[in-house]
Specification:
With 220 residues, the chain is α+β, with helices and mostly antiparallel strands. The chain contains 10 helices and 7 strands. The strands form 2 sheets. The protein has a 4-stranded antiparallel beta sheet. Strands 2-3-4 form a 3-stranded antiparallel beta sheet, with no helix packed on it. A hairpin with a 5-residue loop joins strand 6 and strand 7. Helix 9 packs across helix 10. The chain is globular, with a radius of gyration of 18 Å.
């Protein structure tokens, strides 16, 4: 995921295999980032050779867990090597649209819609035992152990909230009248919101449009 451009990359072959095996499409999994109350922690397993995060949130009333990495917008020549087995030719680049849908970014820069092919009927029919077995069988995204979860420090809530709203740091700070430097300190863990700030963030998460409208002085 690129946090600045709200774009996602995934391996098309892996996505197809996951859809056949589990019934969940990556097009649906990315919507976990829309959950304003999602919980995000760093993955402490460094054997993958990259810094990864685990986000858990709701998608269409179902609880999903997604493992992802963050990538900055850099030139093609300076990009780090992609994940093992993920070549430029089989990489899907998807961009989030303002209405919550996503589109595939084609090599010529144009886009086309990416439909969600998730088989929710199949997913809902899975037992708890089947869900756990499927998770444990995923070599690329095994669940964290209780020890790892205990050690993991949650990613600052404000970053998860901002990203769910599809806003850059500058846009979020301007819309909700938060000093940009303060916001960056919160997101990077240098400081933490005090009690009034935490309450304010909770109000934003509960009704972001109403808060924005009130601050802008716009009528209902």
């Amino acid at each position: 995921m690129n946090d600045e451009t709200q774009e996602f990359e995934w391996d098309s072959a892996k996505a197809e295999a996951y859809l056949r095996k589990h019934g969940i499409a990556f097009e649906a999994a990315q919507r976990v980032f829309d959950d304003l109350f999602a919980v995000e922690v760093p993955d402490l397993d460094l054997s993958y050779g990259e810094v990864r995060f685990v986000i858990t949130g709701m998608v269409d009333g179902r609880l999903l867990r997604v493992v992802f990495t963050e990538r900055r917008a850099v030139s093609e020549s300076s990009q780090p090597a992609r994940q093992q087995g993920m070549s430029k030719g089989n990489t899907i680049i998807a961009r989030r649209n303002p209405d919550g849908t996503i589109s595939q970014v084609l090599p010529d820069g144009t886009t086309r819609p990416l439909p969600d092919r998730t088989d929710w009927t199949r997913v809902d029919a899975m037992s708890e035992e089947e869900v756990e077995a499927a998770a444990m069988a995923d070599a690329d995204a095994k669940p964290m152990t209780p020890e790892q979860l205990a050690q993991a420090k949650p990613v600052p809530r404000v970053r998860t909230l901002r990203r769910a709203l599809g806003l850059t740091q500058e846009e979020f700070a301007a819309r909700y009248h938060i000093p940009l430097g303060t916001l960056r300190d919160w997101e990077q863990g240098r400081t933490e919101p005090d009690q009034p700030a935490r309450a304010y963030l909770k109000v934003i998460a509960s009704n972001p449009e109403e808060v924005s409208r009130a601050l802008a002085g716009r009528p209902r």
